[in-house]
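Exercise 7b. Backbone tokens:
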């Protein structure tokens, strides 16, 4: 069984680095932030195009985040909300 995921980790600064390992290329990738898991959105950071295996870095604007992007066919790609500071991984099963 192969596990594919998107890893996100944060340093002591307000920058968050993430790696796309979900099995999909992200075009026009945005990282949206919330202060609580189900709270209102507090901001968005543009990450550009993040291909499979590539890393991106954005300014961390909240404690929780999710990915919003388009795939190669132009369809919306969105992940479930996760804690941004846990060094989390988004697995393929986390994609809506």
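Sequence design result:
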């Amino acid at each position: 069984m192969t596990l594919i995921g998107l890893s996100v980790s944060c340093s002591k600064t307000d920058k968050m680095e993430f790696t796309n390992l979900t099995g999909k290329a992200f075009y026009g990738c945005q990282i949206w932030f919330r202060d609580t898991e189900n709270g209102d959105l507090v901001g968005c950071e543009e990450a550009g195009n993040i291909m499979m295996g590539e890393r991106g870095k954005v300014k961390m604007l909240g404690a929780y985040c999710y990915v919003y992007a388009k795939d190669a066919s132009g369809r919306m790609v969105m992940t479930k909300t996760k804690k941004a500071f846990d060094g989390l991984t988004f697995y393929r099963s986390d994609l809506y």
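Instructor comment: The CA atoms of residues 34 and 41 lie 5 Å apart. The chain has a mean pLDDT of 84.
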